[in-house]
Amino acid sequence: TIAQRMSRNGVKGYILNMSSMSCWMPMPGIAMYSATKAYIRAFSRALRIEVKELGVSVTVACPGGIATNLFGLPPKLQRLGVKLHALDTPQRFVKKALRRTLQGRAQYINGGLNRMAIVAVASLPEWARLIIKTRLLDRINQ
């Protein structure tokens, strides 16, 4: 791994891997995305333990609510979301994630609302997730 190469070369440092809030909330329509993000989170948490004694710290960032075009949200609504602190700008998220990484944190999730959503959405039954996909997400992406 990169951490082992860092150690062999006498380099101590930090690794920041990017996951997503979807690693906890598999949804219809983004199954592959959710699965790969869950892998990144699990890999990062395990790698963190493996390389800690080598002087390498691993952090996994799980962004949720970033003002980008990923879900087709119009720019006007993105700006409103940022003003209401429902969304982070990419720059603000990266700054916070890097700060957590340099503090040696294992994981960074932006916003209290996102941390609460993990529990709420993860507890939804399958039929409710399907409704969210068909009545909300599919309409946004049209």
Structural class: mainly alpha
Helix percent reads 40-55%
Taken in chain order, the helices and strands follow as HEHEHHEHH
CATH topology: Rossmann fold
* CATH C-level name: Alpha Beta
* Overall number of strands: 3
Distance between the termini: 41 Å
Number of structural domains: 1
How is the biggest beta sheet arranged? Answer: 3 strands, parallel
Shape verdict: globular
CATH architecture descriptor text: 3-Layer(aba) Sandwich
Describe this structure in words.
This protein has a single domain, classed as 3-Layer(aba) Sandwich (Rossmann fold), CATH 3.40.50.720. The chain is 54% helix and 10% strand. The protein has 6 helices and 3 strands, in the order αβαβααβαα. A 3-stranded parallel sheet has the order 1-2-3. The protein is globular. The N and C termini lie far apart (41 Å).
List the helices and strands and how they pair.
Blueprint: H1 2-8, E1 13-18, H2 31-51, E2 56-61, H3 75-83, H4 90-102, E3 107-108, H5 112-122, H6 126-140
Parallel strand pairs: 1-2, 2-3
